[in-house]
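Record now logged for everyone:
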Amino acid sequence: MKGSGKAYRWIRLLAPTLLVVLPIALTALLRPGLDVYDARDETLFHLPTTRAFAAALPTPDLSDYASATTPLYHLMLAPLAAATGGALLPLRLLTLLLALGLLAAVAVLIDHQRAIPTWGAWLALLPLGLSPYFIGPAVRLSTDDAALLWVAAALVVLDRARAKLPALDLGALCIAALLAVAAVLTRQVHGWITGLLFLMPLLATDAAWRKRAIGLALGALPVAALAPLVWCWRGLTPPSFSEHQAGLNPDVLLTELAVLGALGAAQAPWLWSAIGRLAPLASITARGGVLLGCALTGVLILVAHPLPFVADTLHYGGSLWSLSSHLPNLGGTTAAFWVLVPLGLLWCVGIAAEGWHRRDPLPTAALTLFLAANVASARAYQKYYEPFLLIILAWVMSRNKAQRWWWWLGPGLLATAWLLIAVVRFVI
């Protein structure tokens, strides 16, 4: 009975989160003329694609359609659209349900090995539920939250499989691979999770080589699932959206690091403490060297690749980019990025240090692969990065006890700020 109670204690994180998030989300869902980026995507891409698939059931044409993403989300909505005559409200409600599933999966993830109290874990989860880049895709037709649901669910399974290493749990790996297939077929950018699937058999040093070979074969399932679409499209997107394939885009990496730098400031005590727990970095002098190294690296990156503010909504977007419009460009780069990019690098070191200390590479590997995968995008939009970065930060924070009461000021302020922003943006 005691173990069963622990297995379901994540509900105590999810329930109060839903009490806060659901009234805001339902108000926004029913609000006409809501000014969010996802409303445009709904009108131009996702609703037409879903209705076209519904009209063509049971054999919709996947060779080209009005969305840049892989088709699973639209295929999931198509039967409902067919049954309701393409009515928009049921489709939005199903999209919201998928988004709430994402919150549930993240609650399970951060509860698994959490060392902080329930209210602290709730503070870690709440910013995700209140982020405008979670609520927007939750209340308008969008693939963003739906894809992250499958990603978070796969992380839950892999997190439990990692606890069994160096033994290899093929059953868990198979489930994670199927969830990764769903993620990749919802948004192709999440192909990065294949790297985590390959990592598990490599770390399973006690498993027989045949079992590890089977594990590696399971890891290839997302690639195998995506391959027919890539062959059909002659690329990673439907032909109508081939301009989304732009090679490597350094602006995306800089934006990702800046967003991580801003969000990670709320968990700074946890991440800074993780760096200090590594024996070679235990002294203040050594940690100061890490801080200086991240600062210099960030500066060198921005010197080599400046990123000035430009009013180009086709390639840049988000609250940080809007803030940059009010700040000067210094040395060819918007002023905020001179601070936030080095901070983002520092938080990357903190996350890696926490994983090294726990002998758990999953959060670091997930973050690294995610950052790298997005660099292939032509658009540096904050909405694509913030929710996943909040998941990683909550995951890492939940596994380490707060050493001082004031550590909670950052998470509390972040949750409060996101609540105010959500009310102003989606309710008032």
Notes: Residues 150 and 179 are 5 Å apart (CA to CA). The radius of gyration is 21 Å.
